[in-house]
Amino acid sequence: SLSLHDALPIAGTIMEINITDAAGRSMYRTSAAATQWYNTTTLQTFQRPKGLYFVRINIGDKHYAAKLVYE
After folding, report:
1. What is the distance between the alpha carbons of residues 31 and 22, in angstroms, rounded to a whole number?
2. I want to staple 57 with a disulfide (CB 3.0 to 4.6 A). Which of 48, 53, 64, 70 is the partner?
3. How many CB atoms lie within 10 A of CB 16?
4. By three-state DSSP, how is residue 18 classified?
């Protein structure tokens, strides 16, 4: 699970999520407008080969990255 506790975007701010494989190819991309206070995004079942992926999240002018191991 990936939690961004310091990311409290202003309502209407666009949140972008991109998951890439180890070679940098985009495997999943979505965006949504933030609501006030707590925002949750659920990713649908990840139908990709098991392996290492990278999650990049942009919320306004803040950028986050994390490794995702899919087993």
Report:
1. 22
2. 64
3. 14
4. strand
For range 21-44, the mean pLDDT: 80
Question: For residues 27 and 20, is the Cβ–Cβ distance under 8 A?
Answer: yes
Whether 4 has a pLDDT exceeding 60, the answer reads no
What pTM was computed for the model?
0.73
Instruction: Write down the H helix ranges in the chain.
Output: none
Digit-coded pLDDT (tens) for 52-61: 999 998 888 8
Could you tell me the maximum CA-CA distance found in the chain, to the nearest angstrom? Answer: 36
d(CA 10, CA 21): 30
Residue 4 structure tokens: 């961004």
